[in-house]
Design a protein that fits this description.
The chain has about 150 residues and is an all-alpha fold. About 75% of the residues lie in helices and about 0% in strands.
Amino acid sequence: MKYKYIIYIVSAIVGFSIGILVNWTSFTKPEESVTEIEFASYNKKKAIVEKGDTIAYKHVVDSIKTNYPNCGNYFYYSLVMVLAYDYAPANYDIYTALHDLYSSSNKAEQIDDKTKQLALFFLENGAKKGNKECINKLNELKMSEK
């Protein structure tokens, strides 16, 4: 009877040990953990959304534009800054993000009318608030129409 319990205990210990060895990677910290740079980027993105931090916004948008040209991945942060914090320069970034999504390097179809209207809305909105980039782009578009 005593041996029966010992066999059960030894079996459980051996089984548990084998289970740990087989699944050891799930118990250890993965090497692809968040780096300090990714954590800093996360904090900046969080500051944009929660506080409307303009310095963090400029850094994140510039980083995205540099690292991922013609992709428009900064659209979300620009939209948050315009709608939640009324940050005028983000209007131009929305315009460029929408046009980047439809650029020839993305091999997307030509920009549709509703998206073009949306992009122009934000461009005009930024111009009304005095953003020079928006004003210059609107003037450039008016000149090209003639």
